[in-house]
Amino acid sequence: MGTDQVALAAALHEAEQRLQAAVRSGDVEALDLLLDDRVVYTGPDGRSLTKEEDLEAHRSRTLVVEVFDQQDLQVTMVGSTGITHVLAGLQGTAGGQPFAARLRYTRTWVHADGTWRVLAAHAGVAPDFG
User: Does the residue 130 lie in any domain?
Assistant: First the structure.
């Protein structure tokens, strides 16, 4: 990897960490900056959310993530596209109901205008054995 690619990969790693922190704190402004306007998020239940639906879930506190414990993070890059693979333990409330889950996230990021933004994301339940 050239110097530019190393710098882009480091910036992507940092963007993933900022995204996780924004989810944990319910920081809708930070999420707005980190999510591409065209983002589609597919949750572990198979339902898809637009950016506005995702932001509204945090804004209204319908979704509150109190714990986002990253257990593994891998970054793959091809040009100005990046993928983050995250394994994490989450705890919080969704629709007023408490939840605890071990999830594996795959996020596709695009780098434009000097910043990384999520274009697509998928979360699935991770088995306890890996």
Answer: no
The predicted-structure confidence for 12-31, as pLDDT tens digits, reads as follows: 999 999 999 999 999 999 99
DSSP conformational letter for 27 = -
- Specify the CATH number for the domain of residue 109: 3.10.450.50
- Whether pTM exceeds 0.90: yes
**If you search the block for the tokens 């933004």, which residue do you land on?**
117
Helix ranges (H only) for 26-123 are: 28-34, 51-59
Domain count, the chain: 1
Residue 51 near residue 78 (C-beta atoms within 8 A): no
* Distance (Å, whole) CA 21 – CA 95: 21
- Contact (CB, 8 A) for 77 and 85: no
The 81-94 sheet, strands edge to edge: 48-50, 35-42, 115-125, 97-112, 81-94, 63-78
